[in-house]
Design a protein that fits this description.
Elements: H1 2-36, H2 42-47, H3 49-139, H4 144-169
Length: about 170
Amino acid sequence: MKPKEKNGSNFQDLLWLFVLVFILWLIYLFTVRLIVGKFNVSGLFGDSFGGFTALFSGFAFVGIIYTIWQQQKQLALQMEELALQRKELELTRNELKRSAEAQEKSEKALNDQVEKLNTAARINGYSTLISFHENMIDRRKANEELVQKHSDFSSQYIETLERILKSLEH
């Protein structure tokens, strides 16, 4: 609300300047009329307004200076606002950069977790197969050929598990 009050105050100041100019013009008019008094010297009366024209020209010049001053103040305010916007933009840019980096780290952690879960699932699968074949060996002790077959499968699964575990160490 303060900028509106300032604008209202500026308009009020300008209005008072116009009133002042009008009052000076009336004073000038009555002064010349009192001094001249006769119409036969009206040429001189008309020439006497040359000073009044100079007065109005001075007021016009003051108005132009006042306008330039107001524009300069507005430009300074705009420059301040632009500087604040640049700072805010830089802060936003930094925050977005940190957010993107955090998201990349999160994605990497999730990918690592998925890889470890896949490895754990494979290990569980091989453990189940080993248990199955060991169970079959226990049941089939009478049949040497089946025992050997299940024993070979178990050995292969154990070797595969050992390779998986070694790859996890690296």
